[in-house]
Design a protein that fits this description.
2 strands; mainly alpha; about 90 residues; 2 helices; two-stranded antiparallel sheet
Length: about 90
């Protein structure tokens, strides 16, 4: 095999190995769970600061009530027809 072709193959293999190594050993920050926040009725969880923070203000309650009304209005006309009975 020609030395130029061999060096090209070795360089390509080295670059591929480096890319795979960089991908495999990158930090997995998103998968680290700092703590579990239980869901609570009428409260919101704010992630804008980088961590989970439970909020229970008047504006949050109003936003939750508005969202519930919008979801109820949007899903009020949705129907799922029954499947026809199987033929014998």
């Amino acid at each position: 095999m020609a030395p130029r072709r061999l060096s090209s193959l070795l360089l390509a293999a080295a670059v591929t190995a480096a890319a795979l190594w960089a991908y495999a050993f990158q930090p997995r920050v998103a998968h680290r769970a700092a703590g579990v926040i239980p869901l609570q009725d009428g409260k919101t969880i704010d992630f804008s600061g980088g961590t989970a923070e439970v909020k229970d203000g008047a504006a949050d309650k109003a936003a939750v009530e508005k969202a519930v009304k919008e979801m109820d209005a949007a899903s009020g006309t949705v129907t799922f027809p029954a499947d026809p009975p199987p033929k014998k």
